[in-house]
Specification:
Layout lengths: L9 H9 L2 E5 L6 E2 L8 E6 L2 E6 L5 E4 L2 E5 L5 E7 L5 E5 L1 H4 L6 H4 L11 E3 L2 H18 L6 H18 L12 H14 L16 H8 L3 H12 L3 H19 L4 H7 L5 H12 L3 H8 L1
Antiparallel strand pairs: 1-8, 2-7, 3-6, 3-8, 4-5, 4-7, 6-9
Helix pairs in contact: 4-5, 6-8, 10-11
């Protein structure tokens, strides 16, 4: 029987909806093929055996042995497990769960967030023991009633990211399929590099699909077509989603006025920002900030 825990089970989906996080021991000893598509969650996997991950923006990543790999909801992918051994772990979490850490530079530069980064690392025995220990600590913590459990689990995620950034990733022969996949990755990376907004005096400069097309030296229609084809979302939607995420962080973690946040995010008038934020979240900025206090 072929089984592959790439999409969450009903139980995992329930946890994601309620808590935004789940860590579990994966059944990597069974071979199988996952459906191709976009997930709505981030995933970190400690895998064993031979695995091939196929992305829309890349040909494939071939893993052999004990490996750590990251997946994010921006890039559709499928997984083929060719052979494996007992053992292995996976942790999945939503964007809302990780938001409190979003302004961390180490996460923004990690394989979790860099669309053009290398998502796979082959582990030494010492690294395997260390990463396994972190996963087992997460599993143990998940079962507790500790009031600050979510914060501790986020710290474990950060710890795995730090360990991954210590490693020198090997060449897993990642290649772009064509020019449109390359430009999509360049757009996503350029978008992420506009954030975080750290000063009112340095507002967001690239605000529209045309702005990004100009920076990438391509026609805006070509950029829009490539991004939509590769990610399933329009260029404008990607920009709006990222601006909304930054807006929520600024409302929660700064004392800037709504007008200042509007200016920092590139809106000409505060009411333009308020209308945008309400459309994206269902809340006006002041009401959202009040509820977060």
């Amino acid at each position: 029987m072929k089984t592959l825990h790439t999409f969450p089970t009903l139980e995992l989906n329930d946890d994601l909806k309620l808590k935004g996080f789940r860590v579990y021991e994966a059944a990597l000893c069974q071979t199988g093929h996952s459906m191709f598509g976009r997930r709505h969650f981030y995933k970190i996997v400690l895998s064993t055996g031979k695995t091939v991950i196929t992305y829309t923006d890349r040909s494939s990543v071939k893993l052999d042995g004990v490996c750590l790999y990251f997946a994010n909801p921006h890039i559709p992918y499928s997984v083929d497990i060719l052979s494996g051994e007992p053992g292995g772990y996976a942790c999945i979490f939503t964007e809302n769960f990780i938001k409190p850490l979003e302004r961390s530079e180490i996460l923004l530069q990690s394989p979790l967030f860099k669309a053009d980064g290398n998502p796979a690392f082959r582990l030494t025995e010492q690294q395997r023991v260390k990463i396994t220990g972190i996963f087992e600590s997460m599993i143990a913590e998940q079962a507790t009633n500790y009031v600050y459990k979510a914060d501790l689990l986020r710290n474990y995620i950060q710890l795995i990211v730090h360990e991954a950034l210590r490693m020198q990733p090997e060449d897993f022969s990642i290649h772009y399929r064509n020019a449109s996949t390359r430009i999509t990755n360049q757009f996503l990376d350029l978008l992420e590099r506009q954030f975080p907004i750290e000063s009112i005096t340095s507002p967001l400069m690239l605000k529209t699909a045309q702005d990004y097309a100009n920076q990438l030296a391509v026609h805006v229609n070509y950029l829009n077509r490539a991004v939509k084809e590769e990610t399933g979302k329009s260029t404008t939607t990607h920009i709006a989603d990222r601006v909304t995420t930054e807006a929520t962080v600024l409302l929660q973690h700064t004392d800037w006025s709504v007008a200042e946040i509007a200016y920092a995010l590139g809106f000409e008038y505060p009411n333009y920002f308020s209308n945008f934020f309400k459309k994206m979240t269902g809340n006006i900025p002041k009401a959202y900030r009040t509820r977060q206090v």
